[in-house]
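Reminder: ligand-aware prediction takes two inputs, not one.
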Amino acid sequence: MIRQLVLAAAVLLAGGAATAQPKVIAHRGYWTAPGSAQNSRTSFTKADSIGVYGSEIDVWLTADNRLIVNHDRHHKDTGIDMERNTAREITKIVLPNGENIPTLDEYLELVAAKPHTRLILEMKSLSELQREDLAAEKIVRALRKHGVLERTDIIAFSINACLAFKKLLPDTKIYYLNGDLPPRSIKELGLAGIDYSMEDLRRHPHWVEQAHELGLEVNVWTVDSEEEMKYFIELGVDYITTDYPERLQALLTR
Ligand code: MG
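Here is what comes back for the chain with magnesium ion:
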């Protein structure tokens, strides 16, 4: 009898694991929604309004050591560089939806008011390792100040940045973006998992299973077509980062 119960439980668990669906992350916020723009505060509001798991942002440390939210290092043809110009100069830039580039502080104020959506915070690689360490410290301070640390995951291309965060936040999930390390190296570094491009994961599809065997998680970006979404759902990733979160949600509920 006990043996039968154990077997039944094992079957249920296996079935549950096999049907686990990836969680949806809005890439640079839900910026493809009407009235939105990449990394704008509205993009977080829009992401929150459709009930995604998380919404991603990109963070730079400016020349005057302030934190701002934007993706590209250079703003179009203006010559403004997110790391070489001051926060005052950068936050004057108007986004396509009419908002200004936000400071991290302004952004986190909004995140704090939307408790159902996780923040996926990418720290951009900076020109010097020391500046990355400083940025990590400042980001952690800001997350604490706004009370959103518990629902923030950190992602970075820079191993130095990942390790700086790991030192400051041993319990926070930190994922590596650069696609060049196998899961066992990520495990040795003590990180939570890999967050790799579609191209990298298509080249190494077995990394998904390897990561899971090591107790790591897998996120993939930037998955925008239904065909690509289906491929990675089938592959069993834990998170899918997309510019079209509602398209992915519709596919997952089908
Ligand atoms: Mg990013």
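The two ends are 38 Å apart (CA to CA). The pocket of magnesium ion is lined by residues 56, 58, 122 (CB under 6 Å). We will return to this case in the review session.
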